[in-house]
Amino acid sequence: MLKLNTPDLSGTDCGRCVRGAMAYLPTEREGGASLTPSCMVRYGFNPFFSQTTVVALPPSAREEKKQNKSIHIQILVASLSATFGLAVVSASGFFIWRRRRNTQGMQWNNPLV
User: Fold this and answer.
1) How confident is the model over 10-20, as pLDDT tens digits?
2) What is the pLDDT of residues 59-68, one digit of tens each?
3) Which residue ranges traverse the bilayer (predicted)?
4) 3 Cβ neighbours under 8 A, 6+ residues apart
5) Cα–Cα distance for residue pair 38/7, rounded to 1 Å
6) Is 99 buried (19+), middle (13-18) or exposed (0-12) by CB count in 10 A?
7) 33: nearest Cα among 55, 18, 52
8) 8 A C-beta contact, residue 38 and residue 30
């Protein structure tokens, strides 16, 4: 017999739900199922559940938010690093250009050269 409940039920509520669902199982057949909004009961002689089959549960909303936050932080750090690097290179280039310009202007205006 397979009994499933939704995770929001407490142990007591789970037992009540399963007992209520079992009351609706057909007795005149070799198998059957009863489904309610919070639990499901199934029985039968033919195998309907494989213990080797494991279904991965989807990540919870909290885990997804944590992963999304981590990705956003990585993107933010990478973009800020790139922007800072570009600013340093640009400032260095500007100061080098300005220094060369001043040095060249001094050579043309100096009568001793």
Assistant:
1) 888 888 888 88
2) 665 666 667 7
3) 71-97
4) 18, 39, 40, 41
5) 9
6) exposed
7) 18
8) no
